[in-house]
Design goal:
0% helix; five-stranded mixed beta sheet; mainly beta
């Protein structure tokens, strides 16, 4: 399965890779490590081709943002969260930590409250 990594703003192709299984292609909100670089997957779309009257999946296009995964990012409910997901103010997002102390870390925050 061909996976295309694209810039989300210009849609320029950054890189391509081949995966054995479609399930190995990352979903939005996850990080992907490839060629010594780290990317955050923002959006996923599929490319199809019509062959013999049937559509077949040809490639998966991932809109990615080159970004190093933060040290305090952790898996949570099938995705990734930056910071402490048990805090009331955590955004529960791989893009933003929280509204109170977005640059972190959560250990320094005086507004930490359980959810």
């Amino acid at each position: 399965m061909r996976v295309q990594l694209r810039d989300p703003h210009s849609l320029v192709l950054l890189d391509e890779l081949d995966l054995d299984d479609l399930a190995d292609a990352p979903q939005p909100g996850r990080w992907l490590e490839h060629g010594g670089r780290s990317f955050l997957v923002l959006q996923r779309s599929h490319r199809y081709r019509l062959r013999d009257g049937r559509y077949e999946l040809v490639a998966v296009a991932l809109d990615v943002k080159p970004q190093q995964r933060p040290a305090d990012a952790r898996p949570w409910k099938g995705g990734w969260v930056i910071g402490d997901p048990s805090c009331r103010f955590n955004a529960l997002s791989p893009l933003l930590r929280c509204a109170v102390l977005p640059e972190g870390p959560c250990e320094r925050c005086g507004s930490h409250q359980p959810r």
